[in-house]
Specification:
The chain has 2 helices and 2 strands. The chain has helices at about 1-55, 60-70; strands at about 85, 90. It has a two-stranded antiparallel ribbon. A hairpin with a 5-residue loop joins strand 1 and strand 2.
């Protein structure tokens, strides 16, 4: 009977040590999971902030301003546009006619006079 008691005592001690070890590993994994979730939240906030910055940087007015100031670009007009055929020859640019001066009347127009009857 003493052997059986000794064997049962060893089994209880072994299971107790295994339980302690399992709880230790569980706590380690839980703290690692918590750290990973915090890092994921931080990265998500950074991603959202960067998306807002990206949208702010890509506004059409800002892009046009940078193109004009830093790249010395200008808007296209028919006068500066060149068209190239598939064989490599250039089609001459279409020059827009100059704007016509405003028409000035030779004689001043007569103003209509309102008449009243008596």
């Amino acid at each position: 009977m003493a052997r059986l008691n000794l064997l049962l005592l060893l089994a209880v001690v072994a299971s107790a040590l295994y339980l302690v070890h399992t709880q230790y590993l569980s706590r380690q994994l839980y703290t690692e999971l918590d750290r990973t979730q915090q890092e994921a939240r931080r990265l998500e906030l950074d991603h959202d902030r960067l998306q807002v910055e990206k949208r702010a940087q890509a506004t059409p007015l800002r892009v046009e301003k940078l193109a004009k100031e830093q790249l010395q670009m200008r808007t296209t007009t028919p006068a500066i546009t060149q068209y190239v055929r598939p064989d490599g020859t250039v089609i001459p640019a279409v020059v827009a006619p100059p704007p016509a001066p405003p028409a000035t009347p030779a004689t001043p127009a007569a103003k209509p006079v309102a008449r009243t009857q008596r």
